[in-house]
Design brief:
- The protein is about 20% helix and about 30% strand.
- With about 425 residues, it is of the alpha/beta class.
- The strands form 8 sheets. The protein has a 6-stranded mixed sheet, with no helix packed on it.
- It starts with 5 loop residues before the first helix and ends in a 10-residue tail after the last strand.
- The structure holds adenosine monophosphate (AMP) and magnesium ion.
- Magnesium ion binds next to loops.
Length: about 425
Amino acid sequence: VALVPVEEARRHVLDACGVLPAETVALEAALGRVTAAEVVSPEAVPPFANTAMDGYAVRAADTSGASDELPVTLRVARSIAAGQPPGPALLPGEAIRIMTGAPLPPGADAIVMVERTRPASSVSGGDAVQILAEADRGDHVRRPGEDVRPGDRVVGPGTELRPAHLGVLASVGVTSVEVHGRPRVGVLSTGDELVEGGGALEPGQIRDSNRRTLLALLWDSGFEAVDLGIARDSEEEITAAVDRGVGACDALLTSGGVSVGDFDYVKAVLDRRSGGSMRWMQVAVRPAKPFAFGVVGGVPVFGLPGNPVSSMVSYELFARPALRGMAGHTGSSLFRPAVQGVAGHDFPRRPDGRLALDRVVASIGPGGRVEVRSAGGQGSHVLTAMARANALALVPDGPGVVAGEELTVWLLGDLVGGGPA
Ligand code: AMP
Ligand code: MG
């Protein structure tokens, strides 16, 4: 069987997965969603001129020539706290005590921070303050609309809504937003050997780990995961589970039963249910060589391999980008970030026509360069190495990469290190 390059297999999958229709959701449910339209602000932020500092609102002209040695004394008319209206105008020779966020009173054009003032003995019976530095017009004043003007586009279409975006929308009084649907994705494990949970294993049995990792990967990617359980190696059980998933989900992940020479129940069921559109591939990659993809009743179905590391890598290569596309992401944001690093040791391999994706730890080393080291055993059953890894290193077909050479990694998590020493 001819090996299919990763790019070709991925293109095939991406082309078949359309973006989910838009819907309007409340801000509290919008985190991680991708906007389907731009959002234009109906208001200004800040909505009124206010002070960025605790201090005194003044007329800048009244502070002319003020210094530590020659302070200017102003009568303190009153004080304004945040949340209070600005009140009457500031008169020449006056200052108004003012707290951060409080509105600038009419007539004032600058703030003198409290650190540049000193209490003064009263002036004609009232409170007074010594101004110790000259103020310029506009000092510490936040102008209305400085952040957002009415009519400004505050969020573009196709934006993944992060906490700061939600804050911006809240700041302009927008309470709901038009976003693409969030993929609801079913996960089905297949295999007679699989058991759920704890308890003693019978000879030949193993525990189902793929469903845990795949459900968690989906939630971690911002999708909604639906547990479809374990189907025995029987056409009836697999058919029932696939039909249940197709009825309730936007996409389906199965694991197991896609390698050659299996008891091919998954193959039989998906071939029948997809009307023969299922494509069974051997991808030019290691791990995650076997991969099947097709559309059943309008629902994309990803036939992921059974080996625990392979199923996760296959998810990363094919399912995650396609599901992100369904969620409204486009372009390079479909994919994990690719970073150039330096091999911390030899990455030997034999030529076999496949791209090797080694499970590695990518860390920020001296001088800020990214150093790449193996996360452990590279067998497709060694899930502990996947658990230690924060990246997949691309070791191209050929003799391998030697220590000190550059290689590309796909970041699956945060880079390690590089923080405060
Ligand atoms: P298969 O593709 O069904 O032949 O499975 C390939 C390998 O992955 C076999 O060793 C299976 O036992 C193992 N495997 C399949 N499904 C799972 C699963 N859900 N959890 C852990 N291992 C699995
Ligand atoms: Mg199996």
